[in-house]
Fold this protein.
Amino acid sequence: MEPRKLEISVISDLHLATHGSKAKSVAKYLKSIQPETLILNGDIIDSWRFSRSYFPKPHLKVIRHIIKLMEKGTKVIYISGNHDEFLRKFSDVELGNLKICNQITLDLNGEKTWIFHGDIFDHTIHRAKWLAKIGAASKGMLTMINEYLNMVMKMFGGKEFTIYKSIKTRLGKDRSVYSSFEKAVGMAALKRNCQTVICGHTHVPMDKTLKTDFGTVRYLNCGDWVEHFTATEYSNGNWSMHYYSETDEESVNDELDIPNEKEVLQSLLKEIMLHTA
């Protein structure tokens, strides 16, 4: 099946280098599209929990696919998030088809779209970063336990499940938190004279219109690739949410080469040298 042609694809919160990342699904999604621009909207590589001892081949495959897209002419814009904040010191660096930045505003059909990760509106991150890191570590441990439980479930013919997602559903996480987040993001977008705003960070995919006393703005959250497997896509003059599913996997050829670390580095250096020579 031919890859879907898109003008823009926005994905966030892959959390590569963690057990929670569903890297195989990310790689298959990337294989299924042919975007003119791919925007990596933060928390792509999880530096909070990064370890040299854990970066498996499916995670390397995602990096390799991103490089392949650059080699084929796709412009890749990497917007830093809180889990990959080490990249913020390289803001506005451009190397060939790769651009690193903290945020970006696009002019599409006469309307402005503001894209950024969203952590600047998370008060927990700024007031008690240590608490946020403890939460991330706890979630990581829960994910590892989840993996072993799913292995047992498969042995007995059961279905896989995500503990963290189930707990959030049972506790009925306070939706007012997201409402205040969305309102803050929407107001900031209006101040920038933007008609559309796209963020990530919350891991909650969303497409809604926010109405305020100062105007109306379309709010999109591209979700994540830990629980929801979603992307925000732009094609034919319109933004839409794409919900990845197993049927997508069946339509994509999975005969993909899995590079080692040396091959990925060589390919990336080749791409940089090609566009800077």
